[in-house]
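Good day; I would like, with your permission, to put a structural problem before you. What I wish to show you is a protein chain and, alongside it, a tokenised description of its three-dimensional fold. I would ask you to consider whether the tokens describe a fold that such a sequence might reasonably adopt. You will find the record immediately after this paragraph:
***
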Amino acid sequence: MVVAFGRRLTRDPDIRDGATGAPEQRPASDAVLLGCHGGAGTSTLAALLGTPWELGGHAPGLERIETFGRPLILVSRDSAPAVARAVEAVTAVVDAGATVACLTVVADGSGPEPREASVRLRLIEDRARRIVRFPFIAALRYADTADLDKIRLPRKAERALAEIRDARPDGEPRGTHRTE
């Protein structure tokens, strides 16, 4: 199977700033997103980043991913089973010759990341240029991707988005970033 881009999302990148009510331009990203499993939060993250390139979920048998120079961002939840799928996806993508510019781990609740998930993520730190934790935001569970501009994100989430946008496929030191 060869994957080159996915469905194109259309979304107005404007966001309302809850404090002033004035629209604030959120910078768009030209990254390509691939979910490590179903329900990873890929569509929501693509909408938040303003990128039109979403490949859906990773499937076994992946032979090649062509991003045409755009950074490849993999997305996973932070549960132990989800991170197990992330390990499989990262391994398959790297074995297929692609560079994982960023693995975004989306919190699936307000509690701490499970220890088993943290241990598994440490196993693949050397295969992803950057690992960014995206915090749990309850309001995102109730919003459609078309309505994300109505949600004011906490600073922690905005910092995580900035880290994801800064991910590059080449020339960046590898490492883990935890947005606290």
